[in-house]
Specification:
Catalyzes the reversible epimerization of D-ribulose 5-phosphate to D-xylulose 5-phosphate. Keywords: Carbohydrate metabolism, Cobalt, Isomerase, Manganese, Metal-binding, Zinc. This is Ribulose-phosphate 3-epimerase. The protein is of the alpha/beta class and 217 residues long. The chain has eight helices and eight strands. It is globular and about 40 Å long. Bound molecules: D-xylitol-5-phosphate (DX5) and zinc ion. Zinc ion binds next to strand 2.
Length: 217
């Protein structure tokens, strides 16, 4: 099965998001990855729920929202109401509230994702697997596009795949984000990733369609 590619608009032109999302759709993308950063959980600030709401009006692509924020509990309802389809937040943000937040997302009939940073082991997420639709393994320190893929993280893909088998979660999305290109994509899919986020590789290419296709091979 081909992985689902989720192009990250972090590398798009923020003054031309509609144009860039239309390009992604024409290139065959089904998901769009939206990186939300609060300048606190990560050392960068991007966009919030009002932008997701505007994007919802101009696209029917799956809005795959990645919250890199310190207080997901406080803001998750804003992202639900803005029209996100998938909401992924970080285990490292408010670990005592993780299950509450997952349940809030599920009650709203959205897909719930949980992400781990490069230094967090896969075992930290195991107990949440039965409740999740998606696990996002970061292969760079979250905060910026265009960083180098951290190879030491890849074993976690196989670990999560094994958890999915143990907990009979056949439909779990195992997503990888950070430093994905036409080489690192192969390493990830071989180990069991079925969704790949890519920002700079896609948007810096001359041909977005070919770039997306090259991640599926
Ligand atoms: C980084 C973000 C990524 C980013 C990936 O914190 O979560 O989604 O856009 O960018 P590339 O693909 O350039 O590594
Ligand atoms: Zn991301």
């Amino acid at each position: 099965m081909e992985p689902i590619i989720s192009p990250s608009i972090l590398s798009a032109d923020f003054a031309n998001l509609e144009r860039d999302i239309t390009k992604l759709k024409e290139a065959g993308a089904r998901w769009v990855h939206v990186d939300v950063m609060d300048g606190h959980f990560v050392p960068n600030i991007t966009i919030g729920a009002p932008v997701v709401k505007s994007l919802r009006k101009i696209t029917d692509l799956t809005l795959d929202v990645h919250l890199m924020i310190s207080d997901p509990k406080k803001y998750v309802s804003d992202f639900i109401h803005a029209g996100s389809d998938i909401i992924t937040f970080h285990l490292e943000a408010q670990s005592d509230l993780t299950l509450d937040i997952i349940k809030e997302i599920k009650t709203a009939k959205k897909l719930a994702g949980l992400s781990i940073k490069p230094k967090t082991p896969a075992s930290a997420i195991e107990k949440y697997i039965p409740y999740l639709d998606l696990v996002l393994i970061m292969t760079v320190e979250p905060g910026f596009g265009g960083q180098k893929f951290i190879h030491e993280c890849v074993q976690k893909i196989a670990d999560i795949k094994e958890y999915a088998r143990i907990y009979k979660k056949d439909n779990l999305y195992i997503q990888v984000d950070g430093g994905i290109n036409n080489k690192t994509s192969k390493i990830c899919t071989k180990l069991g990733a079925n969704s790949l986020v890519a920002g700079s590789y896609i948007f810096n290419s001359d041909n977005i369609k070919l770039a997306i296709q090259s991640l599926c091979k």
